[in-house]
From TrEMBL:
SUPFAM superfamilies: C-terminal effector domain of the bipartite response regulators (SSF46894), CheY-like (SSF52172). Residues 152-217 form the HTH luxR-type domain. Residues 3-119 form the Response regulatory domain. The modification 4-aspartylphosphate is found at D54. It comes from Plantactinospora alkalitolerans. Keywords: DNA-binding, Phosphoprotein, Transcription, Transcription regulation. Pfam families: GerE (PF00196), Response_reg (PF00072). InterPro entries: CheY-like_superfamily (IPR011006), NreC/VraR/RcsB-like_REC (IPR058245), Sig_transdc_resp-reg_C-effctor (IPR016032), Sig_transdc_resp-reg_receiver (IPR001789), Tscrpt_reg_LuxR_C (IPR000792), WalR-like (IPR039420). This is Response regulator transcription factor.
Length: 227
């Protein structure tokens, strides 16, 4: 059973997230919070595997809450709920240790998939969030985008062939178990590769590594029906 906390200052959003997640018998909603401070306290108390947190909340915002949860309860993975127009906040949240990003107006299946992926130790960037991140980086200008892409490719070039392959799978949001099956190796081997990839790229979570993969262009584009 996957234990989940929901945090959003809007009661209707919390009810909607609960309704979607409750359709999966393998997910148990253990607590709800109306602000970031309460979310951190409830995570400490209930120790859920996943916390689904609105990126903008009163008292303590979702970005700061995610950072505090990562610091004090690192076993809890944080999924940020965002809306279009908050792309700069998504980048900040990556630095704060969030493991997943979902658009509030996305498909219900994405929410369940995201919770299951993060509970399994994977990063989860919905296709639309990944596209928005890349688009936001591009909006800084062609020169800046080329510089970012060039820097990302240089970082990826220090990886071994197998590590680049693992990074591409991270960019696609696959868990260690899924990657192991793709590569026909044991899960422990994948875990070692992931740790090495994060260290070599200089990032501290899988979601940040996924963005590097997208910037470097080593992740196949999503199918049209995923966009």
């Amino acid at each position: 059973m996957i234990r989940v906390l929901i945090a959003d200052d809007e009661a209707m959003i919390r009810a909607g997230v609960r309704a979607v997640l409750s359709t999966d018998p393998g997910i148990d909603i253990v607590a709800e919070a109306a602000d970031g401070h309460e979310a951190v306290e409830l995570v400490r108390r209930h120790r859920p595997q996943v916390a689904v947190i609105d990126i903008r909340m009163p008292k303590v915002n979702g970005i700061d809450a995610a950072a505090e949860i990562r610091r004090t309860v690192p076993t809890t993975g944080v999924i940020m709920l965002t809306t279009f127009g908050e792309d700069d906040h998504i980048l900040q949240a990556l630095g704060g240790g969030a493991a997943g990003f979902l658009i509030k107006s996305g498909e219900p299946e994405e929410l369940i998939a995201g919770v299951r992926a993060v509970a399994d130790g994977a990063a989860y960037l919905s296709p639309r969030v990944a596209a928005r991140v890349v688009a936001y980086l591009a909006s800084s200008g062609a020169g800046a985008l080329a510089s970012r892409r060039g820097a990302a490719r240089e970082r990826v070039n220090v990886l071994t062939t197998r590590e680049r392959e693992v990074l591409s799978f991270l960019g696609s949001g696959l868990s260690n178990g899924q990657i192991a099956r793709r590569l026909h190796v044991v899960e422990g081997t994948v875990k070692a590769h992931v740790s090495s990839v994060l260290a070599r790229l200089g990032v501290d979570n899988r979601a940040a590594a996924a963005v590097v993969a997208h910037e470097a262009g080593i992740v196949p584009p999503p199918a049209p029906d995923q966009q």
